[in-house]
Amino acid sequence: MQKYQFVCGYKPRFSGKAAFRNLFIVLLISILYTSCIRDVIDNNSPPAERYDAKFLVKYLDFICKTARVTEGFFPPQVARAYGYIGVANYEAVIHGIDPSKSLVHQLNGLSNYNVPVPERNLQYNWAIASNAATARMTRYMFEKRISAARRNTLDSLENVTHQALAANENPLVASRSQKFGMDVADVIFEYSKVDGGHESYLNPFQLPFSLPDFEHVWVPTGAIMHPLSPRWGQNRPFMTVNIALTQPVAHTPFSKETTTEFYREAMIVYNQVRNNTAEEVEIAKYWADDPFATCTPAGHTFNILMQILDEENCTLAKSSVGFAKMAIAENDAFISCWKGKYDYNLLRPVTYIKRYIDPSFNTVIGTPPFPAYTSGHSSEIGAAERILTSLFTNGSGDYQFTDYSQLQYGFNARNFRNFSQMAEECANSRLYGGIHYPMDNSKGLQTGRAIGDNVNRRLSWPANVR
Question: Which letter does DSSP use for residue 42 in this model?
Fold first, then answer.
């Protein structure tokens, strides 16, 4: 077993009468300058890069399918569920990658919780820990609304995966690793309880709530009479800067005068819908990602991540880093976007156009029950663009891929040259659908990209994982 090694270029030499003096100096330096020492104690645990991530991909698929059919899981609630599941999995695996990159002292408030760490000199199986943490955290996130059938499917996925991973493992190592993953999930769940969104799926409209009565303020646009999750913007983000430093400037001043910029924004929507091409209608529907018909915008984005991780045969290490990055970015993008929505409470284009331009106007897709500015799709896909770019490119964003994730909903696959094109198409889809002003989409993309950049650059992540 290896002990401590000097890594800062100093190699002690002892000779003659100076031996004891030099030994004392070396010991003193080793105490005072611990930053020059790297703990490379080998506990014989294979690194996380030794494990594939096929089982983790199955969990991402399970989360999507569960979110689609579980009452109360609208876009913000789904993004939050992915968020905490991704963080729990990461903390169960990171000690098999680089312990110094734990999120405990990086995420907002997490250092206040006693997140478990592995026992020194004991062996762990990081895949078994990941399986236990991910299953347990998924169970927690859907706890009071998950159906019996979905719970049984989750139990089966966890048990089958554990048996496969433990088949050739020392039983003590398997048991220890499983307990470690479960313990991590327990603490992350406690951390999640005080973020403002705990069990929000039980009352997603956060009633009672009322909006001010002004001409520019959102009004219902369909059967749902209450705005969704109006206090979501007050939730604790994973990164404070993702709220404090990303909020967009105020939207163009509301006006019904035909010569104003606001009227022009509405006319762009109106003319776009009237002159949509067949492909633009297809794009609007492709990216609609309606809750309970699909697994929402965040689910679509995680499905793209899942697909690429699988195609690239990424290891558990790379997949856990990718899952955590996207989890933090998506959760915070929805908090940031929802803060803006209810700071401004702006009415939707369909309301404006029917009032002041054309009472017969209809949108291509349904208008969601919350204010317009900014676009949630644009915010979350802007964040995702930056995360995918960091994971799969050298920073250029150039990555040709085909999105197969919507085949399950009857759509044809769509091809993209790069992640920026993907994000722009998703944002533009809300204009083609007639449900967002152009400024909603452009400012949403700007906010989301800033959040993705924060996640990539302001958090310390393992380098060169594969």
Answer: -
Domain layout of the chain by residue ranges: 5-38, 48-192, 206-458
Contact 444, 378 (CB under 8 A): yes
Q: Which amino acid is it at 73?
A: F
| Residues β-bridged to residue 5 | 38
Which residues have a Cβ under 8 Å from the Cβ of 171 and sit 6 or more positions away?
none
DSSP string, 100-139: GG-STTTSTTGGGS----PPTT----HHHHHHHHHHHHHH
- d(C-alpha 28, C-alpha 66), whole Å: 57
Quick: pLDDT tens for 369-402: 999 999 999 999 999 999 999 999 999 899 999 9
Residue 212, φ and ψ in degrees, nearest 5: -65, 155
Q: Under CATH, which number does the domain 206-458 receive?
A: 1.10.606.20
Going by pLDDT thresholds of 50, 70 and 90, the confidence category of residue 40 is very low
Report whether 65 contacts 294 (CB < 8 A).
no
CA distance 347 to 256: 12
Which H or E run includes 388?
helix 376-392
The amino acid sitting at 340 is: G
User: For the domain 48-192, what is the CATH superfamily, name and number?
Assistant: Phosphatidic acid phosphatase type 2/haloperoxidase (1.20.144.10)
**Cut 0.85: pTM above it:** yes
Task: Give the C-alpha separation, 93 to 177, whole Å.
Answer: 10
- Other beta carbons within 10 Å of 152: 11
Number of other CB atoms surrounding residue 342 within 10 Å: 19
Digit-coded pLDDT (tens) for 441-464? 999 999 999 999 999 999 999 999
Picking from 214, 241, 208, the residue whose alpha carbon sits closest to that of residue 227 is: 208
Q: How far apart are CA 58 and CA 299, in angstroms?
A: 14
> What are the φ/ψ torsions at residue 401 (nearest 5 degrees)?
-155, 160
Q: Considering only CA atoms, which of 408, 424, 327 is closest in space to residue 83?
A: 327
pLDDT of residue 171: 98
Type and span of the H or E element at 417: strand 414-418
Check if the beta carbon of residue 437 is closer than 8 Å to that of residue 349.
yes
Residue type at 314?
Answer: C
Cα 132 from Cα 181, distance rounded (Å)? 5
Determine the Cα angle at 324 with ends 40 and 417, to 5°: 115
